[in-house]
Amino acid sequence: MAWLVPDSAFDPDAHPAPVIGICSALGDHDSGNHWHVRGQVLFTRQGCVRIDSPGLLCLLPPSRAAWIPGGLAHRARMRETVDYRSVYLDATAAQGLPEQVTILDVNPLLRELLERIAQAPFDSDWRHGANHHLLGLCRAELQSAQRQPMLLPLPRDRRLARLVDGLDRLPPALGELARQAGASEKTIGRLMRRDTGMSYQQWRQQWRLLRAVERLALNVPLGEIADELGFASDSAFIAFFRGMTGLTPGVWSRAATPG
């Protein structure tokens, strides 16, 4: 196991073992665009991570895990302090895991498995004995873990470039977006459906959900979040959040709190 300090270089592909784990706590960190041959399980004990990959924005909330397939270019951005564990799996160890970035729920068993694997020495034997069974159980838990709706597909058309460039701002209403893009509302709807599989309204609501989760993880007051996301009242925001997640913002925040 390695404790990764800020600005230290680490290459998971430079090690011969089929499984490599690291632990770290980083603040305001940007990994830059990169890729590795190994797949990566990124588990956040505390804090929130944005993961950018081609055509997709993913949000990794506290106490969840992201599966990032090997060979996929991506960028991880962390706000404030993120306490995390990373487990890197070679192609054999990663068999049966998704072929795209996936955000996963983490139950107590999976949490403990990821913790133990992340803290194991780099020269651990993962092909025999107790570690072999530990890895097999971890892979089974990853395969069966509930997937979280923390993904936002991004439009590719150049007329919608302002949306992709301005993901920290509330996307405009459809009529305003059409005016900015110089296209009809019908055309905007067709482009969004083609590129993201969603209507524009569905896409805007999904953006709101990811932004709300990110701001809750940063302990931003509820009223401030509601205002930022364009809701007329706190109760309207709470109703929206419950409709999207099945939980109120308060219950979600308590469930995401470490311990």
From TrEMBL:
Keywords in alphabetical order: DNA-binding, Transcription, Transcription regulation
Domain (HTH araC/xylS-type) ranges: 157-255
Superkingdom classification of source: Bacteria
Cleavable signal peptide: none
PROSITE patterns: HTH_ARAC_FAMILY_2 (PS01124)
Lineage of the organism: Bacteria, Pseudomonadati, Pseudomonadota, Gammaproteobacteria, Pseudomonadales
Keyword Oxidoreductase: no
Protein name as it appears in the record: Helix-turn-helix transcriptional regulator
Record InterPro entries: AraC-bd, Homeodomain-like_sf, HTH_AraC, RmlC_Cupin_sf
Organism: Pseudomonas soli
Keyword DNA damage in record: no
